Amino acid sequence: MNLKKVRCDNCSKEFKIKKILKTKKKDGLEGEVTIHYFSCPSCKTKYTTLVENDELRKLIRETKQAYSKIRQLKDLKEIEEAFERYDELEKKRNRVAARLKSKFKL
Questions:
Q1: Number of domains the chain is built from
Q2: What number of helices (H) and strands (E) belong to the chain?
Q3: What does the alpha-carbon distance between residue 8 and residue 41 come to, in Å, rounded to a whole number?
């Protein structure tokens, strides 16, 4: 396994990310949220890699389906329309992901 090496912003120690951990939180507006993160083994500073809720999971699924559809199409007009749909979903997914990540930093 190729482990990614990073440097902690807090203590400047270099380490390899061995495991992404998950924790769940309940939020009145966002529902149940899963926070994916890793920690510095030296100082225990936590780094959030992904925050997801049902809305984001649905958008990820829809984005994957839209991409799969593009790969199956032959007609240029249908491909262009499918790409527009894919781009819309991707932009919305990125907005939701950014909102969640800023709201639920560890």
A1: 1
A2: 2, 5
A3: 9
Q: DSSP character for 43?
A: T
pTM: 0.73
Q: How far is CA 62 from the centre of its chain?
A: 14
Our CA dihedral for 64, 66, 72, 77, rounded to 10 degrees, sits at -150
Compute the distance between CA of residue 97 and CA of residue 4 in angstroms, rounded to an integer.
22
Residue indicated by tokens 């839209």: 66
The boundaries of the domain holding residue 50 are: 5-103
Q: Which residue has the tokens 């120690």?
A: 13
Q: How far apart are CA 59 and CA 95, in angstroms?
A: 11
**Mean pLDDT throughout 32-54?**
93
Task: Tell the burial category of 52 from Cβ atoms under 10 Å away from its Cβ (0-12, 13-18, 19+).
Answer: buried
Terminal Cα-to-Cα distance of the chain (whole angstroms): 27
pLDDT recorded at residue 103 = 87
In the prediction, which pLDDT does 101 show?
A: 85
What is the predicted pLDDT for the residue at 31? Answer: 86
